[in-house]
Amino acid sequence: METVLSVLEEVAARPLAYARQWKEATGRKVIGLFPMHFPGELAHAAGGLPIILQEDDEPITIGQSNVFNFYCGYNRSIIDQALRGEFAVLDAILFGDHCVQLLGTADVIRANVPQLPILFNQLCSILDAEWAMRETQGTFRRLWHELEVLIGHPIDEGRVRESIRLFNRNRSLIRQLYDLRRAGRISLTGRQMQAVVKSSMVMDKAEHCALLEQLMAQLKARPPAPGVRVFLSGHLCHAPKLAVLDLVEECGGIVVDDDLYHGFRFIFADIDETAPPVDALAEWYLSRSKKVPCPTRAVKDLDWEDYLLKAVQASGAQGLIVLLAKFCEPHMYFYPEIKAAFEKRGIPHLMIETEHEEMPIEALKTRLETFMEIARRRAAA
Questions:
Q1: Is residue 319 part of a domain?
Q2: CATH code of 80's domain
Q3: Which of 40, 173, 219, 345 has a CA positioned 20 to 30 A from the CA of residue 4?
Q4: Which domain holds residue 40?
């Protein structure tokens, strides 16, 4: 088990290095995707390697003079990587308009790396509008055509179906790990679960599935050590710092579930394998936020705080920890409603504002220890 996890952790730590090795080995194209809503299945069906572009751990240097300081750490890191030449491995970048900062990031990359194609596709943000299905189908048809132009040959519908099946298989395997962890039947740390999901965003899906199947076969039924059962929420675009995940556990917490992008939000929804591919992709996109709400999408009579209350209860969590990336406006707008809902129910919750730069770990440790003690006392009352 440790050998498989070490491979996944290495890919998660150095995603662009994996992409370079894959490209050298296959001679095929690498397509970078911005989070959160575009399916990688089309790029995979085109013969490419779709990778979700990740924040890296390097200090932001050259990129600092090309973007506002009030952009979130993810956007500033992406710009810095692009200007340092880290994205030379990419043959194109695919992005949408779910974040104003992301639009600015794409403009900076266009201006400074003009040889790198950026495929912009605007997805409908009002998911239950009467025109939403029609508009979304049109968007995915345009993306299909743009990818055909990029690779220089048609993308066969049968290949898209194969890619959908493969990606569904990958999501299903990760969901099995989530189910086992939620039920308390296995002991996987927050760091290990993040490696599983983050590596899935980067690796060739067939290779990743093979590693997950090895991991499932090697896992032993071992309940986690006693602790405060915690639900993690937030971080809509990039992975939480491993130091923060480690500290939650060091202070007595056990993460039993989450709605992180580098977590359950990425793997919970499959695509219909029987419907016409464009229709299936459109339905997948439009239904995702109806199941796990996203603050960048709008659905009538659906609130993130209501989802979180139910999810925390269903997982048996004793408290909620919200990881809010500094300057993430969509999350900032929703947090007051989440806070009010949990205070009304008397459920312990803690908001941690994260950033790309170093965080005050000792101060955070004090806050987490206090939160764990409150959660223990509430559970015992």
A1: no
A2: 3.40.50.11890
A3: 40
A4: 12-143
